[in-house]
């Protein structure tokens, strides 16, 4: 997946929970799913996590790959279009806020770590409201700039989507660390299949149809549960 130890180390850095972009501050609607009883144990948590991962693959995953491929070609307008399409797939306000907040933060961090002309231009367009600044597009640009492979990018995004849910689950579902790590391990088994299905998709092929998840996320905007059990 990576050409050398340096790019592997960078991949690990950007997927680490300690990397300060706020990846683990959101639950993808899990809190409401737990509150309503839809997710209540390890089995239902695994189903929910896999649904999130599949939805993410066919939306954010596609946008990230297009941004990644546009970077070396210098196709800046294509990056902006991937960003626009990514935000259109977010049906609830919380998801839009999450992806924009993390995308901007990743761009800002990367500029402090390794200045890059494309990232700098994209960040300026976020600040001037020309583009939303979504997280998957930020990942695509930053990973390309760092020489991380395309498949590495896709796997990192899938890992982040799954781990966001599973980290929240430890605070609002009756599961243990053993359960969440087992689910994460099994979820990774579908990464290759999802990548093969997604890598040839165009932006207009993106689809986010997961109504139950979107309803839960929208309910969470006015809900009272915030990552804790009483």
SSE topology:
Elements lengths: L4 H11 L14 H6 L6 H32 L2 H13 L4 H21 L3 H11 L7 H11 L4 H23 L4 H11 L3 H8 L12 H10 L10
What key phrases describe this protein's structure?
230 residues, mainly alpha, Urease accessory protein UreF
Structure, described:
It is a single chain. The chain is mostly helical and 230 residues long. The chain has helices spanning 5-15, 30-35, 42-73, 76-88, 93-113, 117-127, 135-145, 150-172, 177-187, 191-198, 211-220. It has a single domain (7-11, 35-211), classed as Orthogonal Bundle (Urease accessory protein UreF), CATH 1.10.4190.10.
Question: What is this structure, in a nutshell?
Answer:
The protein contains 11 helices and no strands. The protein is mainly alpha-helical and 230 residues long.
CATH architectural label: Orthogonal Bundle
Number of domains: 1
The percent of residues in helical segments reads: 55-70%
- Strand proportion, as a percent range, falls in under 5%
- SSE string, helices as H and strands as E: HHHHHHHHHHH
What do we call the CATH homologous superfamily?
Urease accessory protein UreF
Radius of gyration: 17 Å
CATH topology: Urease accessory protein UreF
Counted beta strands: 0
Structural class assignment? mainly alpha
Report low-confidence residues grouped into runs of 5 or more.
Answer: none
Average pLDDT over all residues: 90
Choose one word for the global shape. Answer: globular
Please give the alpha-carbon distance between the first and last residues.
43 Å
Oligomer: single chain
CATH class: Mainly Alpha
């Amino acid at each position: 997946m990576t050409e050398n130890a340096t790019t592997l180390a960078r991949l690990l850095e950007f997927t680490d929970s300690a990397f300060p972009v706020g990846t683990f501050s959101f639950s993808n609607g899990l809190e409401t799913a737990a509150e309503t009883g839809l997710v209540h144990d390890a089995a239902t948590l695994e189903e929910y996590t896999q649904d999130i991962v599949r939805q993410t693959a066919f939306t954010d995953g596609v946008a990230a790959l297009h941004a990644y491929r546009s970077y070396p070609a210098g196709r800046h307008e294509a990056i902006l279009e991937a960003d626009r399409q990514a935000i259109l797939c977010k049906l609830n306000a919380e998801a839009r806020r999450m992806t924009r907040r993390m995308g901007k933060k990743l761009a800002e961090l990367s500029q402090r770590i390794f200045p890059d002309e494309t990232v700098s231009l994209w960040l300026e367009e976020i600040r001037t409201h020309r583009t939303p600044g979504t997280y998957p597009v930020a990942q695509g640009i930053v990973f390309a700039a760092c020489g991380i492979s395309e498949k590495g990018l896709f796997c990192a995004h899938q890992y982040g989507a799954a781990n966001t849910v599973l980290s929240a689950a430890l605070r609002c579902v009756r599961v243990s660390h053993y359960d969440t790590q087992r689910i994460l391990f099994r979820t990774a088994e579908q990464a290759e299949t999802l990548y093969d299905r997604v890598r040839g998709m165009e932006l207009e092929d993106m689809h986010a149809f997961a109504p139950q998840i979107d309803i839960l996320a929208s309910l969470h905007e006015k809900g009272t549960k915030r990552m804790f059990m009483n």
